[in-house]
Amino acid sequence: MSTSLFGGTAEIMFHEFSDAAELEAFYVGQYAARIHLKQPPPDTPAVMSAYRLKLGALEITEQRRYVEMATESERDDAYVVCLVTVGDLFFEQRGVEIEATADRGAVFQPTAGPVWVRTPARSTTGALIVSQWTLVAQLELLLDRPISTTLTLAPALDLRTGSGRSWIRLLTLLTGAMHDSDANHAFLRPIVAEPLCQALLTGLLLTADHRYADELARPAAACRPRHVKIAIDLIRAHPEQPHTTASLARAAGVSVRNLQQGFRRHLGTTPTTYLHHVRLTNAHDDLHSGRVATVSEAAQRWGLVH
Q1: 203 CB contacts (<8 Å, ≥6 apart)?
Q2: Is the pLDDT reported for residue 195 higher than 70?
Q3: Burial class (CB in 10 A: 0-12, 13-18, 19+), 21
Q4: In terms of C-beta density within 10 A (0-12 exposed, 13-18 middle, 19 or more buried), how is residue 215 classed?
Q5: Is the pLDDT of residue 220 over 50?
Q6: Using an 8 Å Cβ cutoff, are 179 and 61 in contact?
Q7: How far is it, in rounded angstroms, from Cα 93 to Cα 113?
Q8: pLDDT-derived band of residue 35, with 50, 70 and 90 as boundaries?
Q9: How far is the C-alpha of 244 from the C-alpha of 271, rounded, in Å?
Q10: How far is CA 46 from the centre of its chain?
Q11: d(Cα 152, Cα 19) in Å, to the nearest integer?
């Protein structure tokens, strides 16, 4: 599946907000979220400062808050992993409350309803924001098959384990690039950023608890039959072509029934469903990276009829 997480552009941004109205407008515009602030003391130089690193489909943030703040968000398109460096972070979604610490992150689910995040004054927090389709695409890449259900991550992320500690170290490397004055930082080059983005998402999927965690931990499945591999390679190489189960079976040198059985046994799906999924993933990638301007253009390019 030819999915690129890194769209070829990297951007580091720094923001400093001196009043509540300015910060409120920022949260509405960037994160579709509402904020509530306590009145800052008279000697407070700023309300909040924030670094943001955008790497293709990922955004990494570091926010230093100088006043007590509550955030309410209902966005349904992204996972947000909330982390703490200084102070506390209290997270609530669908009745589940979590206190994020240096050893425990909090995960905002895109399909679980509104979320509240509360932080005290003089706190420093970070976040990894990744679109829902991007994380699902990475999981499918690791499993080498489509998934048919919503990916739900556990609301708490254990950062004390080996995988959790390794994931935090990798995230810290990327966070450090935000504070580097070198505009040509190696992490911002596509040849470096792409594998780092892949590694960061893979590490998150290996660290978080979800229904596919055990499958990811198991050794890779045995090699697929040659005819299934031929069909998969054809679909991945040219998903825009008018493939049918019959044409794929002819190319693989087997009957339609044998190809269908092979896909069900080794991928848990059908050739046509697999083809549609690859096309949809490529269309998502084109829209995100800006290679196409409209949904209709993406659909036409990849042979999607709806």
Answers
A1: 163, 166, 167, 170
A2: yes
A3: exposed
A4: middle
A5: yes
A6: no
A7: 7
A8: very high
A9: 8
A10: 31
A11: 37
